[in-house]
Amino acid sequence: MAKKKEAVALEHYDVIKGPHITEKSTLLGEHNAVVFQVDKDASKPAIKAAVEALFDVKVTGVNTLIQKGKSKRWRGRPYRRSDFKKAVVTLADGDSIDVTTGI
């Protein structure tokens, strides 16, 4: 009898919003790290559990930071970008995530 793949809990999709693709995050890929935009209330253990469940990889470390929104102007009118939380997830040797394919 074939082994069924375990269902992924829906709260994991609430923790990780998507990959954060920048020049710096692409360079971190060389050091086996991936950057995700996550929920502001997400804790490091929750982020680790979500990445391991969604991508079937082993996570060795999670570092988080809150990126403050910038003040910008559009057509002469000021506005402010929203704050968001980023997570730099370090993967075990041999594991990798292709962020261009999606979840």
UniProtKB/TrEMBL annotation:
Q: What GO biological process terms does the UniProt entry carry, in alphabetical order?
A: translation
Q: Which InterPro entries match?
A: Nucleotide-bd_a/b_plait_sf, Ribosomal_uL23-like, Ribosomal_uL23/eL15/eS24_sf, Ribosomal_uL23_CS
| Protein's UniProt keywords contain rRNA-binding | yes
GO CC list: ribonucleoprotein complex; ribosome
Q: Which SUPFAM superfamilies match?
A: Ribosomal proteins S24e, L23 and L15e
What are the record keywords, sorted? Answer: Ribonucleoprotein, Ribosomal protein, RNA-binding, rRNA-binding
Identify one Pfam family in the record. Ribosomal_L23
Q: Which GO terms describe its molecular function?
A: rRNA binding; structural constituent of ribosome
Taxonomic superkingdom = Bacteria
Give the multimer and partner information.
Part of the 50S ribosomal subunit. Contacts protein L29, and trigger factor when it is bound to the ribosome.
Give the family per the record.
Belongs to the universal ribosomal protein uL23 family.
Q: What does this protein do?
A: One of the early assembly proteins it binds 23S rRNA. One of the proteins that surrounds the polypeptide exit tunnel on the outside of the ribosome. Forms the main docking site for trigger factor binding to the ribosome.
Under NCBIfam families, the record lists: PRK05738.1-3, PRK05738.1-5, PRK05738.2-4
Protein name, UniProt field: Large ribosomal subunit protein uL23
